[in-house]
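== Folding task for one protein ==

=== Format: two labelled lines per protein ===

==== Paired sequence and structure tokens ====
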Amino acid sequence: MTTLRHFTPRRGILASWEEIRNTNEVHWAMECFAEMLGVFIFVYFGVGSEAAYIIGNITQVSGLSNMLQIGFAYSFGIFFAINVCAPTSGGHFNPAVTIAFCVFKKFPVLKTLRYIVAQILGGYIACLFVYNQWKVLIDESEALLMAAGPAQFAATQFTPNGIPGIFVPYLLPEQTLGRAFMNEFVNCFVIGLIIWSALDPTNYFVPPVMMPFVISFAFGVTIWGFGVPGLALNTAHDMGARLMAMTIWGLPAGGGVYAAIGSLTNVPATLLAACIYEFLLVDSDRAISGWHMDFINFNMKHGRIQKDDGDFTDINLARMDDKDSRSVIGRSQA
């Protein structure tokens, strides 16, 4: 297998660090860093656009942002996150996806827990950055809300129209918990189906190069269609944002009972989507295309595949029979 090392070998400390970084004892930390960074990227862009939208509404300054811009901000954020970080970690960026890989693709349990912590931390850090970068306008907006009176401020603060609503989805005043759950569950289920379909190595309509586009715009269309009633869509984003909001505004910023819907609904919805796709739509008798085989080879850890006991063994896909090649698909995507 031809690698970058054959054309531009690294020198000095970079080469030494790369040798250390790629050992089993250290590489898991690089994967967790990539997951944290990926969540940071898409939350940073998406929440920044939401800040402009909510502050523009409070200050009555038009043109700062809108739902179309927010949808594109999250879509491009996910697209950039996949392109930058997925080659290192596999590009889960969502605890629900990681848990689904653990259930259906033999993703290691310990690695699953590490990924989830890293993902939530990425959302938390991204929200802290956005808060500090918008701090002047946030303070001005809160002053305008307080000028309307303490009662009005209290009624608005922890709602989608308050300043904490920049970071955290809150229940609309007239929305029921049942409708909020349905809105969250159905959209997360549909996104889960799209993700599982995009990762299917026998799906001829989604070659690997198109996966980032398909997955990222799946989030965009759900935001455009159902973001106003309230959507979280990603456990890492929601939990990281709620922890950050509670850091700034205290426990009331957590969102009460609705917090469980925003933070946890994504997990069972994604598991159900993966279950339906695996049981009803996967066909292991379909051939794997050449571009998917190239992608599988690319995702092997330096041309090796991890066995169940954690060791790595060299493989040669060209010499594998059909049964063996199908058995490694899930792990290569993880």
